[in-house]
Specification:
The chain is of the alpha/beta class. It has 18 helices and 20 strands. The chain has 3 domains: 81 residues, no CATH class; 127 residues, Beta-Lactamase (2-Layer Sandwich); 311 residues, Rossmann fold (3-Layer(aba) Sandwich).
Length: 559
């Protein structure tokens, strides 16, 4: 008597492969087929049984089972798995559904190849999954490719199982690579499909991604693409408008920032201490770029993810380094590992939460030099100290000759957040302010003509909940790099490069100058400038020092 049929896949005649395969009667109850992952769970008792080995050889000749692998387990494991399938609604129904998902995965590859798509991005969010295709260099999608998350999970498993070069077990919480090649791709016009997949924000809600990079076969690459009958559109633009002006950035600074981030490649480095608004700045710039150029893929690496970017793939390494997540070495290793992963994910733009060590810095520079635009942060007080800070990470591999390249480092931003005075309880500031040194008090007066508008923090009132503060404002310096500035770093060092740049008439003023302008408008307490931005020195001394540095390089005599 013939054994039961193997999977719903074999319940009917196999087109082009003869009769349906069956499990011999003496093997029934001793094997379990996981069709999605192409695994046969076999009882250890079958290791030397000729009938099983012959059946396995026959099975591998079937068009949908060529990649099947054997996992030897105790007989009790096989029995438990078979019982679970039976109680879950019937083996045949589940197997038929598995076949359908696998066919969908193959059809997805076939269609993408016919359109000459170079990449497929599957993005599972908390409520739905979206599939995007890179066609002619831009990402596109359609309502047709929005899936229920449960089905999308099975589709990604099925897609991963098609690969012969992959890890044995599919793991939702691991980053995994794979490769699909050989007979599976026959007739599609593809020679190879590289896979990178793993968890992404929001991980707690099942967030995950899969990127498939399609390599066309030689003869197919020269054929014209098939007509696209799908109503493709760019990915959804993020809601909201750029809010930097309301945060305290001037229109001129915003213009400089947008000029930097609209470059196709390069690096924008944001500097400042913790809590200075760097993450918010990067978010606003990333959102604006996604609004203006929705066909670009952004991948972020953050510790942890603070502001959700639904249009991006966000790699969260918050749990790295044990329960506390504060092991600096482990976090640094995670940043490096995620950077390597991100560069295999078909990105256009990258956000690296922080340059923590030399390896992260080198990978960031390598990404920028290979056509990606990268936004990152660096803990340094002055924007002109960024090259020096990088050099201190690795004197040889990150010397000025490497890091001071205007086509790589497009811009450097320094930023601080100053408390805004409550207009209802702020008090008049006087030169006898006991909180400040005499030299600082006298220096304040040199930054404006009318000190009567200067205010200091008041005692608090009902309008500010007794704090004396009405909010915060950003003060920043936006440095657009150019060949002259970078040459000055290499030839003369940090101090001269700083002086020569700031002596120009068309550049953004230093943070302390911007802050003092707000002091004389009664918006900011001068004492908080000394606490948060820099010491206050007499304006004429600062300008004379700057001009002297520039004249010295030009060979002019000092006055």
């Amino acid at each position: 008597m013939p054994g039961r049929l193997l999977n719903g896949l074999f319940r009917k005649k196999d087109r082009g492969h003869g009769e349906a395969l069956v499990v011999p009667g003496d093997l029934e109850g001793q094997i379990y087929i996981d069709q999605i992952n192409q695994v046969v769970l076999a009882s250890e008792n079958l290791k030397r049984k000729t009938s099983f080995l012959e059946w396995l050889d026959d099975t591998r000749r079937h068009r949908n089972m060529r990649l099947v692998r054997v996992q030897w387990v105790p007989l009790s494991t096989v029995t438990d798995r078979l019982d679970h399938e039976h109680h879950a609604g019937g083996v045949h129904d589940e197997e038929a559904a598995d076949e359908e998902v696998r066919d969908h995965a193959l059809n997805l590859l076939r269609e993408a190849a016919s359109w000459r798509a170079t990449d497929i991005h599957i993005m599972r969010k908390d409520r739905h999954t979206e599939i995007q295709f890179r066609i002619n260099g831009s990402l596109v999608t359609s309502n047709r490719f929005e899936l229920d998350n449960t089905y999308a999970d099975r589709l990604m498993r099925a897609m991963y199982s098609l690969g012969a070069s992959r890890e044995t077990a599919y793991s939702d919480l691991s980053f995994q690579d794979g490769s699909i090649a050989g007979d599976v791709l026959r007739g599609m016009g593809l020679s190879n499909v590289r896979i990178v997949r793993g968890p992404c924000f929001p991980v707690s809600e099942g967030g995950k991604f899969m990127v498939l990079r399609l390599q066309p076969a030689g003869e197919y690459a020269r054929k014209p693409a098939a007509p696209i009958k799908v109503d493709f559109r760019p990915p959804r633009r993020p809601p909201g408008k750029l809010r930097l002006e309301s945060y305290g950035f001037s229109p001129e600074q915003i213009e400089r920032l947008l000029n930097i981030v609209n470059a196709p490649s390069g690096i924008l480095i944001c500097t400042g201490p913790t809590g200075s608004g760097k993450t918010t700045l990067l978010f606003e710039l990333a959102r604006n770029k996604a609004d203006m150029q929705p066909g670009r893929r952004l991948v972020t690496i953050e510790h942890p993810v603070e502001l959700p970017m639904p249009w991006a793939i966000q790699l969260d390494i918050a749990n790295t380094g044990g329960d506390s997540g504060r092991d600096a070495e482990a976090v640094g290793q995670a940043f490096r590992a995620r950077q390597v992963t991100s560069l295999r994910m078909d990105p256009d733009d990258l956000v690296v939460g922080e340059i923590r060590d030399a390896e992260v810095a080198l990978t960031t520079f390598a990404a920028a030099q290979t056509g990606h635009f990268v936004m990152t942060t660096l803990h340094v007080d002055d924007p002109f100290d960024a090259p020096l800070r990088l050099r201190n990470l690795d004197y040889d591999r990150l010397n000025f000759g490497i890091t001071c390249n205007a086509s790589v480092v497009r811009g450097i931003v320094a930023q601080r957040l100053l408390p805004l005075l409550c207009p209802h309880c702020a008090q008049r500031w006087t030169v006898s302010d006991e909180r400040m040194t005499r030299r600082a008090r006298e220096a304040v007066l040199t930054w404006g003509d009318d000190p009567s508008a200067i205010r200091r923090m008041g005692p608090g009132c009902e309008h500010c909940n007794g704090t004396g503060i009405a909010g915060r404002t950003a003060v920043a310096e936006v440095v657009e790099t150019d060949e002259q500035l970078m040459s000055d770093f290499v030839e003369y060092g940090t101090a001269v490069a700083r002086h020569r740049f700031r002596a120009r008439k068309d550049v953004d003023p230093p943070m302390v100058e911007t802050a003092m302008g707000r002091v004389f408008r009664g918006l900011v307490d001068p004492y908080t400038v000394t606490q948060t931005v820099d010491r206050i020195r007499a304006r004429d001394v600062v300008l004379a020092e700057r001009e002297a540095g520039a004249r010295h390089v030009r060979g002019e005599p000092r006055r």
